[in-house]
C-alpha cells in the first residue's frame, strides 16, 4: 500500500470496512459545528441601493462606495440609530458597500435581528446621501445659502442681458449696410456665448448633486440568516471530520511498513519461499483476540479488523486447497530428507498463519510415502513479535515460518529469524498464507482423503506456480 497509487477501490474499501468509525467521526464533527454555532450567534443581512444619476467613471463609483462604508458615514448612522451598547466602531464591521452595475452603490448591513439589519441599511444609505451632498458643497449653513443666492442673481443678470441684446438687435439699423449686419452678428455671438456659459454653470452647480443621488426605496427585511448558518456549520463540521478520517486512513496506509511481496518477506527472514497456501475466509481472521472494555469499544467502532487487506479472491474447493498444502509438504520433504522434526513458527496474532500451520500439520500426518521418505513431523509454536522467543533445539532440527502477507514489518520478521538462530534452529523455508473465499466442496471426482494428486511439484491446480 505504501507504494501503490490511491484508487477508488481503496476509498470504497475504507467506506465498507470503517463505516461505523466514519459515521461516529462525522457525528462528532457535527457536534463541534453545533458548538461553533453557539459561539457565533445568528446574523441577518440586507441591503439598500443608492442610484447615482449621470455619467460616472468606475474609479468615481469605487470612491463613493468607500465613502458609504467610511467611519464618517457609519458614525453618523450610529448616532441616529442610538442603539444602546453599540458604537460606530462596532457598526463599521457590520456595514459594507460596493459599486454595482448601472451606477448603483449597494449598501449592506448585518445585525442580530432582521429589524435591526433593515434599519441599519436604511440609515447608512440616508447618511451617505447627506454626507455626499455636503462634500459636493450642498449644506444649509449661511455661506452655502449665500452661494446659492449668488447663483440665482447671476442667472437673473444673464436673463436681463439676453433681453437687452434682443432690444439692441431690434433697434439696430434694419438696412443691409455692412455696419448693421456686423452689429447684429456680434450681438448673436454674445448671446450664444452667454448661453454656453450658463449651460456649463448649470452642469458644475453643486446643488444638482443631491438631486442626482437617490435612495432606491427601503431595504427589504431579511427572512433567513446570513451565512454561515447553524445548519451550514453543522454540515461543514461533519464533512470536515469525515474527510480528515478518510485522509488519516490513507496516510496511515501510505506510511505502513508491513511487507506484502514474497521477495521482501523472504529477504527479511533470510530463507526461501516454499509456497503459498489458501485459508478459507472467516470474519475473525484479521480480528485480534482479547476481551475487556477496550476490545468491545474497538468492535463497536469496527476497528478490530484491518481495512487495508484486499478483498479475498475466490478459490477452488477444499480439494484444490489441499493440493497446495500437499505440495508444500512435498517440497519440505525434498528440502529436509529423512524423518526429521521441525518447528512451525507462527507470529503471535496471525490468525490466518495459525490456521494454515494447523492444516500443514494435518497434511504432514497423512504421510503417503514410506517411512524413510515421509513428510517431516511438524509442531506449531506461536512466537510474539514484540519479544520473539523460540524453544531451544531439542528433537526439532529446523524451523518453518508460516505467516500471512501484509501483516508484519521487516524488523519484526528479522526479529523472528534472529530468535530462531538463537535457539539453533535453521529456517528451512517460508510459507505464505492468504485468505480466500471458499467454493462448495466437490461432489464427484474428489481425491481420497490421504491421496496425493499426480501433479508436478511447483504448479498449482490450474498450472500456475504457487
Automatic annotation (TrEMBL):
Subcellular locations according to the entry: Cell membrane
Q: How does it sit in the membrane?
A: Multi-pass membrane protein
Q: Which InterPro entries match?
A: Bact_polysacc_biosynth/exp, LPS_length_determ_N
Keyword Ribonucleoprotein set for record: no
Q: Where is the composition biased (Low complexity)?
A: 455-466
Instruction: State the coiled-coil residue ranges.
Output: 151-204
User: Does the record's keyword annotation contain Cell inner membrane?
Assistant: no
Q: Which family does it belong to?
A: Belongs to the CpsC/CapA family.
Region labeled Disordered — which residues? Answer: 443-466
**Alphabetical list of PANTHER family matching this protein:** CAPSULAR EXOPOLYSACCHARIDE FAMILY, TYROSINE-PROTEIN KINASE
Query: What is the protein's name according to its record?
Result: Membrane-bound polysaccharide biosynthesis protein
Q: Which UniProt keywords apply?
A: Cell membrane, Coiled coil, Membrane, Transmembrane, Transmembrane helix
Highest taxon above the source species: Bacteria
Q: Highest lineage ranks of the organism?
A: Bacteria, Bacillati, Actinomycetota, Actinomycetes, Kitasatosporales
The Polysaccharide chain length determinant N-terminal domain extends over 6-67
List the transmembrane segments.
Answer: 21-40, 233-252
Amino acid at each position: 500500500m505504501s507504494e501503490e497509487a490511491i484508487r477508488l477501490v481503496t476509498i470504497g474499501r475504507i467506506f465498507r470496512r470503517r463505516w461505523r468509525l466514519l459515521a461516529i467521526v462525522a457525528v462528532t464533527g457535527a457536534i463541534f459545528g453545533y458548538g461553533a454555532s453557539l459561539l457565533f450567534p445568528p446574523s441577518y443581512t440586507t441591503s439598500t441601493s443608492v442610484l447615482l444619476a449621470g455619467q460616472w467613471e468606475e474609479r468615481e463609483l469605487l470612491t463613493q462606495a468607500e465613502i458609504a462604508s467610511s467611519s464618517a458615514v457609519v458614525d453618523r448612522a450610529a448616532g441616529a440609530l442610538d442603539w444602546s451598547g453599540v458604537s460606530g466602531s462596532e457598526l463599521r464591521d457590520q456595514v459594507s458597500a460596493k459599486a454595482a452595475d448601472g451606477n448603483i452603490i449597494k449598501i449592506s448591513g448585518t445585525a442580530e435581528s432582521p429589524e435591526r439589519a433593515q434599519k441599519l441599511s436604511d440609515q447608512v444609505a440616508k447618511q451617505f446621501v447627506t454626507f455626499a451632498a455636503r462634500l459636493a458643497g450642498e449644506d444649509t449653513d449661511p455661506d452655502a445659502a449665500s452661494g446659492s443666492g449668488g447663483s440665482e442673481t447671476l442667472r437673473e443678470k444673464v436673463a436681463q442681458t439676453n433681453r437687452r441684446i434682443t432690444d439692441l438687435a431690434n433697434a439696430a439699423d434694419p438696412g443691409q449696410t455692412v455696419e448693421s449686419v456686423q452689429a447684429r452678428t456680434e450681438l448673436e455671438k454674445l448671446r450664444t456665448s452667454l448661453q454656453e456659459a450658463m449651460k456649463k454653470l448649470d452642469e458644475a452647480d453643486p446643488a444638482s448633486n443631491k438631486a442626482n443621488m437617490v435612495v432606491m426605496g427601503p431595504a427589504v427585511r431579511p427572512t433567513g440568516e446570513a451565512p454561515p448558518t447553524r445548519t451550514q456549520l453543522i454540515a461543514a463540521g461533519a464533512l470536515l471530520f469525515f474527510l480528515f478520517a478518510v485522509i488519516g486512513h490513507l496516510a496511515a496506509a501510505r506510511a505502513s511498513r508491513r511487507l506484502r511481496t514474497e521477495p521482501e518477506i523472504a529477504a527479511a527472514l533470510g530463507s526461501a519461499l516454499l509456497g503459498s497456501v489458501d485459508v478459507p475466509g472467516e470474519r475473525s481472521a484479521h480480528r485480534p483476540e482479547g476481551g475487556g472494555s477496550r476490545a468491545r469499544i474497538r468492535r463497536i467502532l469496527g476497528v478490530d479488523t484491518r481495512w487495508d487487506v484486499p478483498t479475498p479472491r475466490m478459490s477452488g474447493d477444499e480439494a484444490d486447497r489441499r493440493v497446495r498444502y500437499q505440495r508444500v509438504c512435498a517440497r519440505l520433504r525434498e528440502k529436509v530428507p529423512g524423518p526429521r522434526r521441525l518447528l512451525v513458527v507462527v507470529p503471535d496474532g496471525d490468525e490466518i498463519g495459525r490456521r494454515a500451520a494447523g492444516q500443514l500439520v494435518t497434511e504432514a500426518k497423512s504421510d503417503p510415502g514410506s517411512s524413510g521418505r515421509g513428510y517431516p513431523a511438524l509442531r506449531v509454536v506461536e512466537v510474539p513479535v514484540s519479544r520473539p522467543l523460540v524453544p531451544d533445539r531439542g528433537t526439532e532440527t529446523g524451523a518453518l515460518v508460516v505467516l500471512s502477507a501484509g501483516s508484519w514489518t521487516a524488523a519484526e520478521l528479522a526479529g523472528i529469524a534472529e530468535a530462531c538462530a538463537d535457539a539453533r534452529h535453521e529456517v528451512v523455508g517460508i510459507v505464505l498464507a492468504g485468505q480466500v473465499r471458499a467454493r462448495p466442496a466437490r461432489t464427484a471426482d474428489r481425491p481420497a482423503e490421504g491421496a496425493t494428486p499426480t501433479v508436478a511439484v511447483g504448479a498449482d491446480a490450474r498450472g500456475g506456480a504457487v
